[in-house]
Design brief:
Elements: E1 8-11, E2 13-14, E3 23-26, H1 41-55, E4 60-63, E5 74-76, E6 79-83, E7 100-105, E8 114-116
Parallel strand pairs: 2-4, 6-7, 7-8
Antiparallel strand pairs: 1-3, 4-5, 5-6
């Protein structure tokens, strides 16, 4: 019911030998009811990403491996996506293959792999 009222989003995992437990994310701006902006900036980026894909009816999954391994965040149409900032790099994708790898970040940190996260909201599906 919380998904139907646009309060929560469930994202299911993709990977081998993983439990099919969903990742639960708030819809924007509900997270800000409990924390201030600076404390939840990273989570808000993921909330935005999931909201955009959910509203565009895209099939996507979060990536999951064994405990303790660095893992990119999501897979959409065989594109591996990491939501992040300055600390994220190519090492995040080690062991994962897709048609393309991308890191969605805040503008100003762009290069061959980093793309602005906000542009996802402008894509028409």
């Amino acid at each position: 019911m919380l998904e139907k009222t646009f309060i929560l989003n469930r994202v299911f995992p993709k990977g081998t030998n993983v439990l099919k437990e969903p990742k639960i994310l708030f819809s924007i701006p509900y997270r800000l009811l409990y924390k201030n902006f600076d404390e939840c900036l990273g989570s808000l980026k993921e909330d935005f990403f999931v909201d955009v894909l959910r509203f565009s009816n895209r099939e996507f999954y979060y990536l999951k491996t064994t405990t303790g391994k660095k893992t990119p965040d999501y897979i959409v149409d065989d594109i591996i996506i990491e939501i992040g900032g300055k600390g994220k790099g190519i090492s995040q994708f080690k062991g994962f293959r897709g048609k393309k790898n991308a890191i969605l970040v805040h503008p100003g940190e762009l290069d061959h792999m980093r793309r602005p996260l906000f542009m996802l909201g402008l894509v028409e599906y």
